[in-house]
Design brief:
270 residues; alpha+beta; TATA-Binding Protein; 13 helices; 45% helix; DNA-binding; EC 4.2.99.18; DNA-(apurinic or apyrimidinic site) lyase; DNA_glycosylase; DNA repair; HhH-GPD_domain
Length: 270
Amino acid sequence: MITKTITDFDIRQTADSGQCFRLNERQDGSYALVAGGRYLEISQRGGEITFSCTGTEFETLWRSYFDLDTDYAGMKESVDPADDYMRTAISFGGGIRILRQELWETLVTFIISQQNNIPRIKKCVESLCAQFGERRENYRGEPYYTFPSPSVLGRLPDEALDSIHLGYRSKYILKTARMVEEGAVDLSAIQKLKYEEAKAELMKCYGVGVKVAECVCLFALHHIDAFPVDTHIRKVILTHYPSGFPLNRYRGFAGVLQQYAFYYDVHGAG
DNA sequence: TGACAGGTACATG
DNA sequence: CATGTACCTGTC
């Protein structure tokens, strides 16, 4: 257990921001997460965040995962004072952090996300992990499952995912896994590429278009200038930015603002 | 009942 | 290159 005082951080907002599908609320209001093969519980009271891990693990894994060394206050302050929609979105969900998730897991989960809703995405991801991931035990003695590797998924026969009910996304995942397994797509090379190049490489994967590639760039590779446009963001732009979203003004961190806008559109009042 | 959910591949003009 | 359409599945 380790407790930290952290500003511009809200675990609930981050969990509900749609960027991550394995960060879930527990009965007692804390949150549980499986990432990097590890299990973590997070609880928050105001600015005090408690993590169920050692100080060493916090420093080596979770500080980076939750992006705690990035200056979110500065980004928020540089939003146009006349940009009423973004100001409101920030006051509503300004505790969101852009996580640094694993590339392979993010790629697969966002393939699953297409034409899908968040509860069902989560169900699919959990089934996938339970069937093909590694079973481990958390500190409570409860089982959890890691995310299955490209080599595990890439060697599966075509019908292996039928029981997960992924629909047409099954063939996207299997083909993409086989491409990674065969070396047609090199994930470790993609880690080193700039945003536009990484996006182009990711789009070589079968079932990965512009939107999924941009989500992977933003939520795994931390290219925070990536700006995924989905049905929600399309609606926000149409309604509140009739002359287009000011990408020019917000160059360099537009993806962070995209998350504020997405969260506000999905969870906000109006 | 049918539209919809954080889209994409593939076929046309 | 821009537009149209089929696609799995579950929920309301």
